[in-house]
Each structure stands twice: as C-alpha cells, then as structure tokens.
Amino acid sequence: MTRLSLGMFVLFFTLLSCSPKKATSAKSPKEDSTAKIQVALCLDTSNSMDGLIDQAKSQLWKMVNELASTKKAGKTPDIELALYEYGNSGLAVTEGYIRQVSALTTDLDMISEKLFELKTNGGDEYCGWTIQDVTNNLAWSDNNEDLKLIIIAGNEPFNQGKVDYKIACKAAITKGIMVNTIHCGDYEGGVRHFWKDGADLTDGKYMNIDTDAKVVHIETPYDDDILKLNNQLNDTYIGFGSVGRNRKAMQMQQDANAATYGTANNVERAVSKSKKAYRNEKWDLVDAMEKDEEILDEIKKEDLPEEMKGMTKAEQKAYIEKKAKERETLQTEINELNKKRQDFITKKQQENAETLTLDNVMLKAIREQAEVKGFINK
Predict the structure, then answer these.
(1) How much is the pTM?
(2) 68, 76 in Cβ contact below 8 A?
(3) How many domains does the chain have?
(4) Interval 200-215 mean pLDDT
(5) Using CA atoms, how far apart are residues 357 and 370, in angstroms rounded to an integer?
(6) Cα–Cα nearest to 87, from 160, 182, 169, 35
(7) Secondary structure tally for the chain: helices H, strands E
(8) Are 252 and 234 in contact (CB under 8 A)?
(9) Residue 42: beta bridge partners?
C-alpha cells in the first residue's frame, strides 16, 4: 500500500478542518428573522421623583401595548424591557448611585414587579454615568434594523458626575442605541441643563413632563367586559416546575398593582396579556409547549400541576391544547373589544387638552422612532 506523504496528510486535514460543519447551537432561521424592540427605562429615584415613579407605574402597560401592537414586515417583534434606577442615595456611591433593576427581558410581569418595588431617596443624579452603564452592561442586539432605545428621566442637570454625558451618548449611538431624554420640569430648563443636547447627540427625542400632573385615565363602556375576559384568561395559565405556583401568584399580583391606578390602567394590563409579547414559557405549560412541542417529555411528574399528575401523556397534551384554544379565543375577544375602546378614548382625548405626562410624551416619541425603523403600529 502506498503511504501518503506528510505533506499530503497536512493538506488532507487542513481541507477537512475548513469544510462546512453543521452548527448545533445556531439559532433557527425563524429566531434569526425575528425583529426586536429593546427599551431600557432609566428612572431618577431621588426624593423629588415620586411623581415620576407614579407615572411610570401607571403607564407601563400602555407603553407595552404601544410596542406590542407594531409589526415589521408583517411579523410581531420580540419586546425586551430593562429597568434601571439612578440618583438614589441608598445605592452605592462607588457605582454612581446606579442600579440595574432588571436586564433586558421579555418577562413583563417581572418588570412590573420590580417597578412597583422602587422607592425614592435623596441622592446625586449622574446621567452620563447611567447611560454608559446601560450601554455597556445590557445585551443589546447587533442588528441595526432593530429598535434600541434608552429612555432616561430626571430633573437635575444632565452634565453631573465624572462621566462626560457627551462621550456616553456618542458611545450609545455608535451601537445604534438612541437616547430619549425626559426632563421633569419646564422645557427651557431642560434645554439649559443639557437634556436636549443629550438626546440630539444620539438622534433621540428630548421631552419634558410635569411630574405633579395626574395621568388622566379614560374609562370606557368596554372596560368591565375586558376585565371579565382577563379573569378567564388567567385560568388558562398552567404553572409547572418549582416556580410555576409562585409565578401564577405574581401574575395575579401585577393585575392587582395595575388596578391600584384605576380601572382603565388595569384594562391596559389586560390588553397587554392578549398580545404575543406577553410570554411565559419559563413557567406556563401553554407557552412552553408552543415553543417546544416535546416539553412534556422533559418535565418530571412531580413538577406537573396537581390536576395533570393522574393523566396519561396523551391526556396531558390534550388538556394543554384545550387551554391554548381557550386562551386564543379570549385574547381575540379582548383585542376586538380594545379596538372599540381605543376609538372611544380617541374621541374623548380630542375633547380634552393634552397634559405633559409620561405617557403622552413618551408614546409619541416611541411611535415616531419605531416607524423610522419599519415597525408599523396596526
């Protein structure tokens, strides 16, 4: 038998190592093609900002609905939110009085829970440092076609702290992240204190709000019916695993938190739960099985809810599919009622003067920026 020379062996293995290999960890084309909207909400939690935190709590679900109602190329995008607080003297001075409350996540209930836990306390507000931290420490998309936003709200001069806000803002826009600034005070004061300059450096929007203004929640004839459907919707969630029971309880608690700001705000949350952006595959079997049809083969019997433990695999699958159909029907009904509700609200808003509240200025800016990126609200 003729022996291959050393050179031929080297050539053979070089070619072999360069040949295409099947990627085992690559995302599927469906995952790769899903557009993203990523928003980091940065709130000043110093003593004077109770009004801002209240407005954020009362308007979270309205913002989610605005984002979740968009489509890009006919497809619903993934919605990821992050939450930061800054300017709170209860935070570490070595960290710039800044805290990442939540990284970017699709877990909207968790964002709501963390938002309602925020407390104000006097401190120094370092906007440049905050923007730098958010830019560097979140898992931002590499796709320039995705919408990536930092929304930072506060009332002290924008140029405080050891990190130059101009450098921080330029670093953000280099990654395709726009910075929307919200000055909690008069418009010209925000201009003088560089809030507008911070936004301009990143092609973002500068806005101002009155934190003492009360958000006007418009109640409609459709609210009660939507809330009844929401109660039925909650019954379609099947908690599993060690966290399932706790997460179902969290879901109910966030309903209750939303209700503390009135019926209309509670309805906004119910509408959010009817959108594709509201996903709970980590603890709900309906969402989990939609993502992974073989999920039942991976779950131990003791991790199933009590009502499913005595079922055969076929019965378990049929039970989950039944709940999935119920959920789809309820979500459709909620969305249809919400269209009528929105028409009612639009007419009422035309009769009233617009106030400078967080929802009015923020949603308008997000809508305009989303459209530029091809995300159309339908």
Answers:
(1) 0.85
(2) yes
(3) 2
(4) 87
(5) 20
(6) 160
(7) 16, 8
(8) yes
(9) 84, 152
